[in-house]
Specification:
alpha+beta, eight-stranded antiparallel sheet, 9 helices, 13 strands, 26% strand
Length: 281
Amino acid sequence: MDGQSGERIDLRAYFDRVAYRGGTEPTLQTLTALVAAHVRHIPFENLDPLTGVPVIDLSAAALTAKLVARRRGGYCYEHNNLMCGVLRELGFGVERLAGRVVWMSPDGLDGPPRPETHQALAVRIPGCDERYLADVGFGGQTLTSPIRLVADEVQQTPHEPFRLRAYRTGYVLESLIGENWRPLYTFELRPRPLIDMQVGSWYVSTHPESNFVAGLSAALVTDDARVNLRGRNLTVHSRGGTERVRLDDAPGVLTALTDRFGIDVTGLRDLEARVTAVLDS
């Protein structure tokens, strides 16, 4: 049950959506397996903001209808609030966290403060004092397993190593890409209510300068690769190297959204026209 809304998550439908056949006891093994299943089957995508549809309703019912029943994807607020409801239903302790994204920012950590436009989760396993950071909604560089909420410890995931460093009154999450540690976002261990996430989601899904309004993004993880799409540019990062494909036109992008990311794009108003407008964004 989602502790704030009182709505129940349809666990059977969710498990079918992510092809999960593991245990349901609130253990680290279950948490790790659920995160792995989620990021491999529910894509990151911003098609609603791109086509002028604000993402405000983060209730269990709305997220289940979109990400599970309609076989769509979403961005951080949708992914992590769905995961929050699933984990709470299974008996985990879960708190919503707000983050400030510095990934791909020219100034990185040295620039002015950025808005809190990201959501992650702090997860506690019953009977264990240790907490874990879970984040199934950071797009092309999302965590593919939970990591311990401790600083200065390199933690291997099925893909890249990650680490947390102390930063001001909280942490910065970093990923090792090539030979360099790259900062992704900063956050504090201050639980946030759902209403704060709704405000953040409204902002990033409606502000004209938001990347989610002004450009197209999609991402999905496989066992040994990350598949990312930005505009017409499709990139596959794997252990063997990086493959880059420049798609010809909007129909080619729509085919990639369907075939490579498994997104059901039916019923999305003016999608081809909007994709055409942001091919090179």
